[in-house]
Every structure is written in structure tokens, then in C-alpha cells.
Amino acid sequence: MTIVGRHCCNILILIALLMASCGIESSEDGNSKLAQNWSKHGFTDHEQRFSPLNQIDDKNVDRLGLVWSFETRTYRGLEATPLVVDGILYTTASWSVVFAIDARTGKEIWNWDPQVPRSYAYRACCDVINRGVALYQGKVYTGTLDGRLAALNAKTGKVIWEVVTVDQSQPYTITGAPRVIGGKVIIGNSGAEFDVRGYVSAYDGETGEQLWRFHTVPGNPSEPFESPALEKAAKTWSGEWWKSGGGGTVWDSIAYDPDLDLLYVGTGNGSPWNRHLRSPGGGDNLFLASILALRPDTGDLVWHYQTTPGDTWDYTATQHMILADLEIQGESRKVLMQAPKNGFFYVLDRANGQLISANNYVPVNWALKIDEQSGRPVEAPGSDYRSGRVTVKPGPLGGHNWQPMSYNPETGLVYIPAQELASSFAQDLSFEHLPGTRHLGVDLGVPESPAEVPSGYLLAWNPIEQKEEWRVQHPGPWNGGTLTTTGNLVFQGTGDGRFVAYRANDGEKLWEMWAGSGVIAAPVTYQLDGVQYVSLMAGWGGAYPLVSGGPATTVSPPVSVGRVLTFALDGRLTLPPPAKRQQPPSDSLSLTASAAEIEQGGRLFSRWCDRCHGPGAVSGGLIKDLRYSTAPVFDMYPDIVLEKMLEARGMPSFKGWLNQEQTELIRSYVMKRASELRSQGDVQ
Ligand code: CA
């Protein structure tokens, strides 16, 4: 490496880089290039999302501005972390479409549309999203919503190989970004809201050959177990769990420690959610809601840590994991940090999975504490919903969801996109196992207490002292992932459509700009031709607006076209202002159904429709609000619901699950809601 020009800065960058990337495999191009690119999902295998670049810092960030904007031509959620290598930005949009973009100008170089069947909109629990690609030796690796893994030529976007990683007759999806470890492509999948069995696989990066697969939950014990670990895990289950898959999907978080040669994956919730229906005799149900350390060469399990034994609240441990070296009680410890959905921040010894400490980072009422001796939560009396309806904190969207957090070794703080979204749980008394349908065993509701207001904030957490250092309150929950830099900065987009820079040590807001849309993705930064850039996907969506309906629209602006936004000092571009909200139609609807029929229709709606169309038929904005339909659309309900009239737009046929009479009841219910909208306005 030749040090020229800004010696001081370059040396600082180098030192910071060495700190940030200790242990990452060395590149023939040297460390300065690694610092200037953003070549891996979490910046390095340690997934800290901490950049040593400092051209943009807390003194000059007020000069930041937009230099280019690229439209993804999609109107659903954008969750990807772009990768930027040698001046090309690689990212993914809704429906698993991959884009290669000139990082200097924002001009498209190529795109690859995997042509995912639109019926997958129903199979995906949480929007038709994708979290990005992996790059390795001239290839772009990407998962598709219908369960494929593809290797593309990074220069042309042409497919080199493509494999199907799932049984496509089952409701598996892929939304997570692959990682490449020593030439092996690691990929998991989603689907535990339905009835699948989770696993993570490794494929040969050159050929696409499957090298190993680790199932995260045991299968039918009358058949041979795939691994000794699963034979042991089966002792923690009861009943006939395998008939509904068991869940435990590896749908997002992956990290790697090259020194220990351990691959870490987080596993999801059980299928069904309700443990009493899933495993009636009790048990921890390994390896649900767990962090697993695997050997990347073989997929063998080395250790596990289960965050929520016997999970029954959708408390996935698939949230972002960060590897760091922390000084704890005078000793340097190799730790793994995670803030999973269950509301506790965990610091583990990543060599052996032992708990070092845990404390709640948001209000929690399902557990009293994590016992430091046993490493297990002490469940709170009253969190079991078998005997009646209870309010549970956090709710199923978690105190923190997939939105990446970041760790700044200079401030010692972890920046968590935290949220408070309590939920009301009751046992679903009408539960039956219907393969391929939503599969919870829970009757979910909104908490009755007016004190339980949805809330979101940027939380700066001290992982050594396990306490909050500062927070910035946002207007609502479901905000973007974070990026931190050696310029003493934290960047975060917000659900109300701003992109904001804060001073990393104290949370002072230093700069913000309208982002054209609610933001959920995490930004990245890189340097090209001596200029530091920050890039961000801006596209509102994901689980919260899809499943929460109306409340999601109170803060977020109307959905706009998705964009990749790129910022640098003295950028001058602006974005169009938010679209106006739609006015209700002025026609009148003739509703003839009785009150009892409408009530029946409402129950059917919440069983079959509200996961996408929102509770009470109030859309969260991603999908057209059904109450705004005009009379001719209501006339088409039999064709829309039972045939495949709108399949190309993501509406599957419900034939086989619903009959003509039930469709008519649902139609009556939605017409009633539409009439209310016309007479009362949009009061939800
Ligand atoms: Ca889940």
C-alpha cells in the first residue's frame, strides 16, 4: 500500500480497518481497497457494519446531499444491503430482482429478473422482499423468493448456475442474503409461519453442487436422524411435531469467525407458534430460536445457545449477529452480540456459546430475566396464553427485527433499530393443520391497554455494561437498519421517510433529508476516486405494513417507487415530495347481507385475508386498500378469490380452502367496511 496525500487519514483508516476486520482473510489488493469497497453483507464476516472511512464526519456531514437516485421499478419493500466493489453497486429489489449499477453515476449496467411466480406473495409471510447478494471471484450469488440459489456473472448478469434449494411444493421462500465462506455459498430459507422444517445449506460456489445441509429441528424419529445433534434435539420435543415441519428456519442472520473457523446462524420460531399445539408434552424444542455455531466445511454443530426455549411467541433468533472483541472485567473476550425479537440483548462467548451477560433492551413482560448461571430465561407468570388472552411484550414483530444494527469499536456502542410493539395473544381454539396455510395456533390481537402505543427509536446500547447510553425517539416503529463510521457518525433511515445522520457518541442529530419513501433497509458507505459515498435502498414495506394494516399508514408516507439513493458531500439532487393520500370513492354500495353474515365474513377475513389486506380490511399501504374498491370490483369477487383472476398481481386462488358461500360472506364484510369508509372517512 502506498500512502500518499492525506497521510494522517490514510493511516487512521488503516488502523481502524485492522481493528474492524481482524481475522478477515487477506486480499491481494490490500486493506485500503477493502476499506473503500463494501464487499460483504455486514462489511466484513464479523458483520459490524462499521466503516473506517472518514471523509464524511460529524463536522461536515451537514454538507451531505443526494448525488444520484436509481428507480427499482417496484412498489414493495426494499430490505437489501447493497454491495459495492470496484465502482459497481450490486443490490436486490422486490421479487428478488438483481441490479448492477454504476456506483459513480447511478446508471444501470444489467439486471436479472428471476421471474418469481407472483403467487409467492401469499407464501411469503413478510412481503416479497430480498436482503441482498454475495460476491466472490467474479460471481454474484443471490437467493430468490421461490427458493432458488443462483450464481450470476458479475460483469454481465448472465446465469452461470442455478439450483433449487427447497421442496417447491411446500411454502418455503428465500429472503436472506447468501454469504460466501471459503468458496462455499451459505443459504437458509423462510416459511415457519406456514409449516416447514428449517435448515441451512452450503453449495460449491463454482459448480452449485450441494455440499452439506444442517436441519435445525428433528424430523420424524421413526426415520434416521440426519445428525447426532438432531437425535439429541429430538428428546426436547413431544407429540408429532414433524407433521407440521417444526419451523426453526434460518431466514436472515449469518456471521463467520475465520480464527475460530465457526459459522454462526440464527434460527426462527416454531411451526406452529403455539408450543402447546406444536409439542404438547412440553420441552425446549431444540434448535428453535437459537444461535448455532457450525463448522463451515461440514455443517457439523459445535455449540448452540437457545434464546427462547420452547418459544411460543414468534421470538426468532434470526436477528443480526455481531462479532467483536470486548474488554469485559479486564479480559479481552471474543463475543457474539444479538438483540433478538424477545427483547433481551445477549453477549455470548463465541468460542463456546456460554452466556456472558443479557439484559432487556426494550420493555419485556414474558420473562423476568435471563439467569446468568443457566443461561435460560425465567418466564414470567401470566405470559402463558392458554388460559386466557394476555398482552405480551415484545409482540411477534420483536423489540428488534431483521433491520441490521451496527457496532462502533470507537464509541463502544451498538446502534439498534429498536421498537415497542406489544401484542395480544390467545389460544386459537379453531386451530387445525391445513398444509401450506398460515400456521400459528394463536388468535392475535391489538393490546386493549391504551398505554401500549407502537413506538420506535434508535437505541445506543453499551454491550459491556448492558445499558442504554442514549436514544432518539422516532414517530413510529419499523425504521431502517444502521451504519456507523469512524467519522463519529450513525446513519439511519426512518419509517416516516427521512435519512438521518447522528453523532455516534451522543446521538445529536446532525443532518437529515427526505428519502422519497419510508425506509427500512440499512445504508452502506464506500470510497471511489477519492470521494466517500453513502448508499441506501428506500422502499417502504416488510412485515409491519403488511400485517399491521392501518397503524402502519399513520406515520409512513404513501408508498412510492423504490429507489437506490446515493449521497456524498455537496450533492445537490432532490426527490419528489410524497404523493397525496387517496380519497375514498364517492359511489354508493348496495349491501344486503345481515349483521350475522357480516360478522361471519369478518371472522373468515381475519382467518384468510388480513395477513396481506390488513386487520379490518385496512391496508398498511403496500397492497391496494380493499375498502376503496368500486362496485364492479366487488362483483368480481368469485373470480378474484376462487379463480386466478389477479394471480399475476400476487392474489392466489383460495379454491380448496374457501367455497362460494364463504367468499360471499367475505365480500359482504369488505363491502360493509367499504361503506363505512365512504360514510365516515378514513378513521380506521
Ligand atoms: Ca416468524
What can you tell me about this protein's structure?
It is a single chain. This protein has two domains: 8-569, Methanol Dehydrogenase, Chain A, CATH 2.140.10; 595-680, Cytochrome c-like domain (Cytochrome Bc1 Complex, Chain D, domain 2, Orthogonal Bundle). It starts with 6 loop residues before the first helix and ends with a helix. Helices cover 13% and strands 30% of the residues. It has 684 residues and is an alpha+beta fold. The strands form eleven sheets. A five-stranded mixed sheet has the order 1-34-35-36-37. It has a four-stranded antiparallel sheet with strand order 2-40-39-38, with no helix packed on it. Strand 35 and strand 36 (498-503) form a beta hairpin. It contains eleven helices and 40 strands.
- How would you sum up the global shape? globular
Question: Segments where pLDDT lies below 50 for 5+ residues?
Answer: 1-30
Helical stretch tally: 11
What is the total domain count? 2
How helix-rich are the residues, as a percent range?
10-25%
Secondary structure category: alpha+beta
Can you name the CATH architecture of the largest domain? 8 Propeller
CATH superfamily of the largest domain: Quinoprotein alcohol dehydrogenase-like superfamily
> Main beta sheet: strand number and arrangement?
5 strands, mixed
Mean pLDDT: 93
Broad CATH class of the largest domain: Mainly Beta
- Main-sheet strand order equals 1-34-35-36-37
CATH topology of the largest domain: Methanol Dehydrogenase, Chain A
Count the E strands.
Answer: 40
Backbone CA Rg = 24 Å
Assess the beta-strand content as a share of residues.
Answer: 25-35%
Which cofactors or ions or other ligands sit in this model? calcium ion
The span between the termini is 61 Å
